Amino acid sequence: MFVTESKNDRRRARQQRSRRRLRGTPERPRLTVFRSLRFIYAQVVDDSTGRVLAAASSRAAGAKAPAADNLAAARAVGQQIAAAAKSAGIEAVVFDRGGYVYHGRVRALAEAAREAGLRF
After folding, report:
1. Which of 33, 56, 73, 102 could bridge 81 with an S-S bond, Cβ 3.0-4.6 Å?
2. CA-CA distance, 69 to 47, in Å (whole number)?
3. Mean pLDDT, the chain, as a whole number?
4. What are residue 19's phi and psi, to 5 degrees?
5. Percent helix, strand, coil in the chain (nearest 5)?
6. What gap in Å lies between CA 53 and CA 26, rounded to an integer?
7. What is the pLDDT of residues 96-107, one digit of tens each?
8. What pLDDT, in 10s, does the model give residues 14-57?
């Protein structure tokens, strides 16, 4: 019998491969992205201490973008995470796309964060 992997299992394998190379430091923490079918989440993580330094999501009560427009929600989350990181004193991050293709919502979040002044 063949054991079939789900799409999410393959994404997790890609994520683990990239996490071997990507490490967040106190000077350059890791900006990680998770997307579900309805929402998108972003966190700035310092891997040396295991702490989340800033977080934003389209699910939060203060999300500005309408729930029906996923690209607009991703852009809003990108701006929110950049603002939260800057308020925490973070200027540069390492981008971790979480095994997702750099396209669509992940790209919109990254570009919005760059436009808001976050370097990666």
Report:
1. 56
2. 32
3. 88
4. -70, -20
5. 35, 20, 40
6. 10
7. 998 898 999 999
8. 888 787 777 777 889 999 999 998 999 999 999 899 999 999 99
